[in-house]
Amino acid sequence: MSAAEAQEVKNHLLASDPQFRTLAEQHHQLDDRLHQLIEKHYLSVTEQVEETNLKKKKLALKDQMESILREYARQHSRAS
């Protein structure tokens, strides 16, 4: 699947799959918070732990989204 095809499938899933859309929204929220932390010159120990946890959660959400994308592509490649 090309990058353009992958983006097309992602856009379709964002519009049609509530679970995928929820995961994407959560991913975006975590990304926003990470950017807030990155902008700071110094992170407290608590903020450092938060940053690590946010990165892990963000990666887990991305993995779930990729799984949905692959499953969608697999199902629709058979149908073609």
Give a structural overview:
With 80 residues, the chain is mainly alpha-helical. It has one domain (19-79). 88% of the residues lie in helices and 0% in strands. It is built from 3 helices and no strands. Helix 1 packs across helix 2 (18-38) and helix 2 (18-38) runs antiparallel to helix 3 (45-79). The radius of gyration is 16 Å and the shape is elongated. The two termini are 14 Å apart.
What sequence of helices (H) and strands (E) makes up the elements?
A: HHH
The pLDDT mean sits at: 92
Radius of gyration: 16 Å
**CA-to-CA gap between the ends?**
14 Å
Number of H- or I-type helical stretches: 3
List the domain count as a whole number. 1
Tell me the major beta sheet.
none
Instruction: Give the overall shape, derived from the CA principal axes.
Output: elongated
The level of helicity is: over 70%
Find the count of extended strands (DSSP E, 2+ residues).
Answer: 0
As residue ranges, the low-confidence spans are: none
Helix-strand category: mainly alpha
Beta-strand content bin: under 5%
